[in-house]
Amino acid sequence: MVDISKQQDIFSRIRAMLVVTSDQASSKMQAQRCRDELEALCSTVGIQVGGWLYFPIREFNSATYLGKGQVEKLAFMAQESESNLVVFNNGISPRIQRNLEQVLDLCVVDRQEIILQIFANRATTREARLQVELAQLQYSLPRLKRKWANLSQQRGGVKGAKGSGEKQLELDKRQAQERITRLKKEIKEISKQRDVQRRNRLQKNMPNVAIVGYTNSGKSTFLNRIADSNVLSKDMLFATLDPTTRRVRLPNGENILLTDTVGFVSDLPHELVDAFRSTLEEAVLANALLIILDASREDLMQCWETTTQVLKSLGALEKPRLVLLNKMDLVTEENLFAVNAFVSTEPNCMEVSILEDKSMKTVLERIGALVFDNPFDIADATQEENT
Ligand SMILES: Nc1nc2c(ncn2[C@@H]2O[C@H](COP(=O)(O)OP(=O)(O)OP(=O)(O)O)[C@@H](O)[C@H]2O)c(=O)[nH]1
Ligand SMILES: [Mg+2]
User: Fold this and answer.
1) Which listed CATH number (3.30.450.30, 1.10.10.10, 3.40.50.720, 3.40.50.300) goes with 204-386?
2) What are the structural domain ranges in the chain?
3) Which of 235, 212, 229 is nearest to 330 (CA)?
4) Whether pLDDT at 295 is above 90
């Protein structure tokens, strides 16, 4: 078990000033939503938030991204709030990151690095650890010898990341490259084993449905509820990193396999998508998708967009799908409009509360219709696996 409380103790001494720019949010309200999610990501790794700033970018500064006045304001606000870290909501290049660190004399990271850190903290299985280490190394390679590396090293490193700071400092590029090659090889070996397991599942002649969607939407809660499973389901981002498959008996007596998967988030670092490809392939190789959306979120449509973008990039968007608009018990007047708008555009969706609804029978019937009314060819699927 990962001792999260210990890590949170390490990070609780880090206080961050958050930066959202008009590149990602064209209005203050949008920026506020970005800030909320960035704050949730930071607090997931135990980083305190000292404040936030919204900067309209009129002219992109090639050295520091922000304009001179904005950098000064950032330095002032960081000092006022006693922040020792700046977190940008948008991705920033290694060069700009270095320049800003020099000017501000503070650690500067972006949202992607925070997400990588969350994954590093959550990874418990060997496969997840290798995948995260690969993603972190690939991300760090152009960013060796930075302040953040020093900071996390001083703090004793981060479990799961296995001293990502140390590694950045100790390893020269060549060593890092060698480690990347070795990690890729090991991950390939593990994914071969996963392929064998998948083939066995396919030979059982049972349709496979992957549960996908934004992080914290209720995917594991659904699997636990209907398959008597005990996957960690918690109000935290990225509770699940490893897929879990359970056999489920539908009301019509047929059996299907249901697979819980890693959640999505907007701007998922591409290094993570690459490293977790074999895990994410659960969605690619499924016969149908059960997409779970948190209907109580104000940014429901944004979550939907992110979900469909990730599925598209994996080549899984065209699969038969059922969308569950979950957490209807939390939906307020304000976001009911977004829910109704979504329902009017998505042909196969249901409003549910996985926690509160008395029965999931109708959902299971709809899943049954999804897989049995869209006949699939097991032989084809097996062939797809082999290629
Ligand atoms: N109010 C309410 N909360 C729910 C409902 N369904 C799930 N939750 C809560 O939402 C939180 C996240 O649920 P999970 O099942 O862990 O979400 P997930 O999609 O598996 O999240 P990741 O593994 O992080 O991708 C938990 O605290 C659940 O109890 C619901 O219908 N209503
Ligand atoms: Mg989960």
Assistant:
1) 3.40.50.300
2) 4-122, 204-386
3) 235
4) yes
List Cα–Cα distances, 339 to 159, 295, 298, 346, 356, in angstroms. 40, 6, 9, 11, 18
Is the Cβ–Cβ distance between 385 and 285 less than 8 Å? yes
Q: What kind of architecture, by CATH, is found in domain 4-122? A: 3-Layer(aba) Sandwich (3.40)
* Residue 323 alpha carbon to ligand 1 centre in Å: 15
What separation in Å is there between the alpha carbon of 386 and the centre of ligand 1?
Answer: 35
Alpha carbon of 221 to ligand 2 centroid (Å): 7
The pLDDT tens digits for 305-355 are: 999 999 998 899 999 999 999 999 999 988 899 999 999 999 999 999 999
Nearest alpha carbon, ligand 1 atom 8: 218
**The total number of residues written for the chain in this structure:** 387
Given a cut of 70, whether residue 3 has pLDDT beyond it is no
Which residues have a beta carbon within 5 Å of ligand 2, which is an ion? 219-220, 239-240
Q: Average pLDDT in the 110-124 region?
A: 88
Verdict on whether the full-model pTM lies above 0.70: yes
Q: Which ligand is nearest to the CA of 40?
A: 1
